[in-house]
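Replying to the earlier thread about multi-chain prediction with a worked example.

Input:
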Amino acid sequence: MDTVSILLSSFVLSITGLFAFVWSLRKRLFDATSEAANIVFTDDEAQREEADRSSAFVCFVLLSCAVVWLLAGSLAGLTSSIKLHEPDWLTQQAWLTFGRIRTIHLNIIAYGWAPMAAFGVANWMLPRLLKTPLQGARFAILGCMLWNAGLIAGVGCIAAGISDGLEWLEIPWQVDILIVIGGALMGLPLVYTLQARKTGHLYVSIWYMGAALFWFPILFLIGNLPTLHFGVEQATMNWWFGHNVLGLFYTPMALASVYYFLPKIIGRPVQSYNLSLLGFWTLAFFYGQVGGHHLVGGPVPGWLTTLSIVQSVMMIVPVLAFSVNQHLTMRGHFKHLIYSPTLRFIVLGGMMYTLSSLQGSVEAIRSVNTVTHFTHFTVAHAHLGLYGFFTMVMFGSIYFVMPRVMSWEWPYPWLIAAHFWLVVLGFSIYFIGLTIGGWLQGMAMLDANQPFMESVKLTIPYLQSRSLGGAIMTLGHFVFAYHFIAMALRHGPSRTGAALLHVRPAGA
Amino acid sequence: MHDELKLLSGAMITLALATSALVVLPFMQLKNVEPPTALKPYTSAQLRGREVYIKNGCIYCHSQQPRDKAQAPDDKRGWGRASVAADYYYDRPHLLGTMRTGPDLFNIGARQPSADWHLGHLYQPRAYTPGSIMPSYPFLFEAKEKADSGDRVVNLPPGYKPIGKVVIASQEALDLVAYLQGLDHTYPVMEGKAK
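Result:
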């Protein structure tokens, strides 16, 4: 590609982006009133009950699947982590070899836990935000069954050594058909409920969820088209997909939750509604093009990595829009963190979003990437995003949603506290250890005077710390799952108030 | 439905931009790349071995894309010159990889041409590289009392052979080794091509 066409296409890109932006501006997207921001609060008791009743069953099914996948994924992840420092452990069975069990871990978390939790929470938020009962929930149930059948088959394929061979896209495309159909069916309630909505405004959470639920099927479909992609082009497609699953699916789904639950719990609307919409459009525009930063220094066209690096750095804009907004909204309300389990998880998750995204922007810069590329540093970063941010937000959301789904409070508040501290402790060990280890690994690899084996040996203590952290996280997940089951079986005392982490003093 | 339309069209525009930049443009730019004359298509054994490489997830620890010497000392480690798009002409799916928990394998065939080394190393990496964290792959081998005719016996360093038995390589192991031996991109290419 010659320079002129690059310049021309980047010009067209910018103009189109600008055009879309100005257009939404003109069409009163930037609402001077806070009417839209107040949608979180404008429902009465009867409306809320009706909304929750309509989504209860589908939400329960989706979240139950999520919890099962979370446990399976944690065990697979822990096994692969241990294998990296105990390479002769469990080597007799092919399906347990590192290359397969690690891939099973990724696929279970990426296509089991994450979307099931996100879909579950989304289906619960939809009727609340659109002021109408959830429509077409039975399609979501059917879709959920197909999706899970596809995922079980896909994980079985990976275990048996049948794989398409692309990272994030290992599940054979024939099996993916089930997941595509299931995903489309799970998106239908969004469409139907939107059509039946009884509110003039679409709250920002709806923007995020709505876009994500359309983005994901397109990504997944193009990524899995058989025989079309080749060689290096396939590598760029691979990371276009790999990063967009994170950026255009998990991230907006989790942000949608933050924008709903955070104002809801502290009882005041989001500080700047316009800032949240600015965050949305800049995320939509910049995030889609960052994938090439996985191929910095690789055999791909130079303009492509440059474009991706630029857009990765531009991601600072939506992230700052979000974190400034979160902080300003929370200001003066931080004491709620003591009592509300949901808020604790969600605010921590929001902070991790800021951290992981800023880290990602820096990591994409060529000089930093030269060190961190090909190392465990990247793995730690990926977990900061998908665990520190996404999973934490989902935990928080589930703690809020489930009592409304079950009409039953969380029976043992101390288990929530145990869950919180276990995953926070475990993940801190995981992330800090692996980040340091990965950086040292990268530095050693760049030093031609050190043999390659040095870069392997020095990571061992950090890989062990990752296993320790991972084990503590897994323990936390079992606590969470036990509590989830206890609640589903209606164990514990029948309580009318919310399960709080500490008894709230009168007047607080 | 006005807001929905706005949302949907905006979302689709941004995704279309991303897709054209990261998928369509590379497709158009790279679809006419010719293979270097010195690059041979894979043999059927190598293609089968490539499948073994994929099914056991070698890609999650081994890249196949040496970086330019201006960026990293990959060439000094014997991993070879920076790769170009043409080098991957026969690669479907691509196996560029993103991790170097183990070394880059773009030229492993040139670095380690010996089948004995590869077979023994797959059976027990620590017999050859002390401190290696690569998994051993006993399921690609069979330990027998004695070898039958046609069996490929793996020569192992002393102390790593199961007592009283011989280790036989499976067809999968032999195919994988054929693929690894074929990973040799030491031929010259024009610098900066397709960059």
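Chain A touches chain B through 95 residues (CB under 8 Å).

Feel free to reuse this layout for your own posts.
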